[in-house]
Design brief:
It is found in: Cell membrane. Keywords: 2Fe-2S, Cell membrane, Disulfide bond, Electron transport, Iron, Iron-sulfur, Membrane, Metal-binding, Oxidoreductase, Respiratory chain, Transmembrane, Transmembrane helix, Transport. Its cofactor is [2Fe-2S] cluster. This protein has helices at residues 7-14, 19-26, 41-44, 46-76, 84-116, 133-150, 156-176, 194-199, 245-252; strands spanning 209-211, 228-233, 254-258, 278-282, 294-296, 301-303, 310-312, 318-321, 333-335, 341-343. It is of the alpha+beta class. It has a four-stranded antiparallel β-sheet. A four-stranded antiparallel β-sheet has the order 5-6-7-8, with no helix packed on it. Strands 9-10 form a two-stranded antiparallel sheet. Helix 4 packs antiparallel against helix 5 (84-116), helix 4 (46-76) runs parallel beside helix 7 (156-176) and helix 5 runs antiparallel to helix 7. 23% of the residues are buried.
Length: 359
Amino acid sequence: MAHEDDPLEHERASWKPSAGLAVAVSDPVRPPDLPSHRSRITDKDPAAMTRAVRTVYTLFYLSVAASVWAVAAYMIFPIESGRIVDVRNNNLFVGLGIALALLALGIGAIHWSKAVMSDKEFIEPRHATRGRDSTREAAVKAFSEANEDSGFGRRAMIRNSLIAAVVASVVPGITLFRGLAPQNSPSNPFAGDPVHLLSHTMWKEGTRLARDPEGTPIRASEVTLGSAFHVIPEDLAELGHEEGYLEEKAKAIVLLMRLLPEQLIETEERKSWSYDGIVAYSKVCTHVGCPVALYEQQTHHLLCPCHQSQFDVTRGAAVIFGPAARPLPQLPIAVDSEGYLIAQSDFNEPVGPSFWERH
């Protein structure tokens, strides 16, 4: 039992909650008062509103003009010509047109929302989401109010210019799809056929394997165990850029490696395609055509850096991981009388992605 003169007991008996604490517990937290609404110049001056509206639809029509220019630049500087100057101008002016179109569209939309749309502030209370008729009616009312506040329905110039700018901004992208494959012509009836284009490269019987990009022929003795060479046909160096150099190189690039002969697991058909453990495979990934250029000499795996497809060099570059649908095409090789590595023939199948229709 506590002593009647215990000071702690007297303190407990005399303690009472303070009035300030009681208010803090019982009263809800109130948000600070919002500052008074400041009217914009466009709300005060009709002339300023007219100028803002004119600025918005001018930006939208500028976006339309830039989209049209991007399409025109694609035609004025055709990349099919093969000339470097046309490729550079095509990239420059098409890119500038698309950039200006999207920039003008974005600035116009921001200026519309900040200077023309309704500037009224309101508080929208939360409520449970329901699918009743009253909810649908409220949604319709909200869209109607949004239309009224934005002026989308009654400001015809802004509405029409926005629609035109959005539609036109898509046109350059659609136009660029034309460059995915050349069109057929009387002089080249297979120009638009990707299967035909990818079925034939510059490799042919007797073509020497050369270093990329120097074009120096490679002797079999130079290919050591664990090494990897980036290879092109020796004849490729004779082509100029205006004669399809880049196109032919993109199809003919090869990766050359040397393993111990007993490490290769070859089918009867392909036993003669390698030379003393040296094998050559297309560098063009069979997924979407990225260059397969990363070789891991311990596991003998080739890696495509784009989507991480992996190929096993010891088993005919078979796919062991990733989205690639088929092995890398193998280039049959041999050695000539001077010890240089040569191709026995072209690839026995089309190089490149597997999404083309193949026969």
